[in-house]
Amino acid sequence: MSQCSKCKTHICRTGDTVHIPDNCPMQHDYPDTLNFYASPDTLKMSRAAALVESTGYCRWTRVEEVMEFSRRIGVTRLGIGFCDGMLRGAKVLSNILEANGFEVFSDLSKEGEVPIGCDPVGQAISLNKDRTGLNIVFGMCVGHDSLFIKHSEAPVTCLVASDHLLGHNPVAAIYSAEDDLSEAPYREGKTHGKSVMPASDELVIPQESFRDPGIHKVALAAAQVREESGGRLTRLGETMKLAERMKVKNIGLIFCVGLRHEARTLTEILEANGYQVFSAACKTGGVPKEDIGILDSEKVHPGTREPMCNPIVQAILLNRSGTELNILLGQCVGHDSLSIKHLEGWVTCLVTKDRALAHNPMGAIYGAKGYFHRALYQNHKQ
Ligand code: SF4
């Protein structure tokens, strides 16, 4: 059982696979990492994600990283999945992507039609018909992102995890848990059996979801959470509420070692709210980047021993733990796509990493008419 968020050393990030802790998943029956990256498409995505990270490290916003990742994997047709509360932001994103030469598909592009907004299943099916090469989750509600991810045929990457209480900066709930707001995140999910659950016939549930009971359960839970929260819960609170409504006990946490402190705090919060948490860090395996064809000069820190991110094995470790709902915390663009593709349980994104904007990628959308105008609307150059 993998519990990397409780690891005291995270030594895999140094490439040391000898001095690993006793409870490290690398101790026993560890998956043969390179086998999972052998196919040309997977290798291309993995290499592209690594090169985007190192090339724009701490300089590019997540929006810029998504565009560069798309170029490097040869994708020109991008889909946007969004919820109705994020309509304006989705339009700005669409404009940015088009200004940079991409063909963009979304509800926004269906001229003359009313945007279907919170129909994540319908949005994914529509993008499948449009044969998009990469789908971007932009501000979807908790659970709606899970449904969108499940139905997308194209790889999916997360750009913005909406949080209407925290200015679409969900990581703030984790940071605040460590200081004077410490009570809130530890309490806000603790409403088991106390809150008023809206009747299912009062909720808007995607019609497509009625065909499959498993899908319908998540669609109903997501609609209930949206109704109950009404913008009064943080994304973290909504995520715990979704788990409660789905009757989930085991939560998976896939995280970037750059956010290992946040992962530990998040684990404590989830456990305080009654969930069992299994977790996998991105550097698990400690496999050198050279093994997937990354040159020393292409590393984040050339001249050092730098392990590759291992999103597929992260997913496999959580699958082995039987996690029913998996939370993404701070994965790179493209690495999230690979984890999403291999996770067997449901997936929701809590935090999208943006090193240039304090992990608040929405800042690029808000700033698109001002400070960031040139960077985002002119064809992005390395
Ligand atoms: S894989 Fe890395 S983070 Fe996970 S327990 Fe082992 S050393 Fe620690």
Task: Give the arrangement of secondary structure elements.
Layout: H1 33-36, H2 40-55, H3 62-72, E1 77-82, H4 87-99, E2 103-105, H5 120-129, E3 134-140, H6 144-151, E4 156-161, H7 171-176, H8 183-187, H9 213-229, H10 235-245, E5 250-255, H11 260-272, E6 276-281, H12 311-320, E7 325-329, H13 335-342, E8 346-351, H14 362-366, H15 373-377
Helix pairs in contact: 2-3, 5-6, 9-10, 12-13
Bound molecules: iron/sulfur cluster.
Characterize the structure shown:
By secondary structure, the protein is α/β, with parallel strands linked by helices. It has one domain (about 5-375). The protein is built from 15 helices and eight strands. It has helices spanning about 35, 40-55, 60-70, 85-100, 120-130, 145-150, 170-175, 185, 215-230, 235-245, 260-270, 310-320, 335-340, 360-365, 375; strands at about 75-80, 105, 135-140, 155-160, 250-255, 275-280, 325-330, 345-350. The strands form two sheets. Strands 2-1-3-4 form a four-stranded parallel beta sheet, sandwiched between helices. Helix 4 (about 85-100) links the parallel strand 1 (about 75-80) and strand 2 (about 105). It is globular and about 55 Å long. The model is unreliable at about 190-195 (pLDDT under 50). Bound molecules: iron/sulfur cluster.
> What's the story with the biggest beta sheet?
4 strands, parallel
Strand percentage: 5-15%
Please give the alpha-carbon distance between the first and last residues.
41 Å
**Global morphology:** globular
Whole-number radius of gyration? Answer: 20 Å
**What integer is the average pLDDT?**
89
- Helix percentage range: 25-40%
H/E topology pattern: HHHEHEHEHEHHHHEHEHEHEHH
Coarse structural class: alpha/beta
By DSSP, the count of extended strands is 8
- In DSSP terms (H or I, runs of 4 or more residues), the helix count works out at 15
- Which stretches of 5+ consecutive residues score pLDDT under 50? 191-195
How many domains? The number is 1
